[in-house]
């Protein structure tokens, strides 16, 4: 029983929960995003374009921010950077849920992309 609550297991559980939340949030977004965009785009033929742009802006921001977050995790440790990353993702999802305008959806995805370096933070340098 003592091994179950060891420091190593607690670190692994924290990392696994972080990854689960990251992928859960991303996969829940796919089916509902067209319905969210539909409210702000008058032409139904442009919905797919804006959904693609929302997904692309997230990937673009994550592409540029992930190496920096990985380097910061090497310097300050994984846990603080993962907590910042989770907090940024939460803010991005809140903005996405609040909506109100198409630019707010984009802002939410940009914030989530810039702080969504969970994978680069979890893997050690040189792995």
Write the layout of secondary structure elements.
Layout: H1 7-38, H2 47-76, H3 78-98, H4 102-114, H5 118-122
Helix pairs in contact: 1-2, 1-3, 2-3, 2-4, 3-4
Oligomer: single chain
What is the total tally of β strands?
Answer: 0
Major sheet: size, sense and barrel closure? Answer: none
Helicity range of the residues? Answer: over 70%
Count every helix, treating DSSP H or I runs of 4 or more residues as helices: 5
Q: Which descriptor suits the 3D outline?
A: elongated
Q: How would you describe this structure to a colleague?
A:
The protein is mainly alpha-helical and 127 residues long. It has one domain (25-122). Helix content is 80%, strand content 0%. Helix 1 (7-38) packs antiparallel against helix 2, helix 1 (7-38) runs parallel beside helix 3 and helix 2 packs parallel to helix 4.
Question: What can be said about this structure in brief?
Answer:
This protein has 5 helices and no strands.
From the structure above, extract its key features.
127 residues; mainly alpha; elongated
């Amino acid at each position: 029983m003592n091994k179950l609550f060891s420091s190593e297991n607690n670190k692994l559980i924290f990392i696994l929960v972080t990854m689960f939340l990251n992928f859960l949030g991303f996969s829940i977004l796919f089916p509902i995003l067209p319905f969210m965009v539909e409210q702000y785009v008058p032409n139904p033929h442009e919905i797919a374009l804006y959904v693609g742009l929302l997904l692309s802006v997230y990937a673009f921001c994550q592409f540029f921010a992930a190496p920096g977050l990985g380097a910061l995790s090497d310097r300050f440790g994984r846990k603080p950077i993962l907590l910042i990353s989770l907090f940024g993702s939460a803010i991005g999802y809140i903005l996405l849920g609040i909506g109100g305008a198409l630019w707010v959806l984009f802002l939410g995805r940009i914030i989530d992309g810039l702080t969504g370096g969970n994978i680069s933070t979890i893997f050690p340098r040189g792995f």
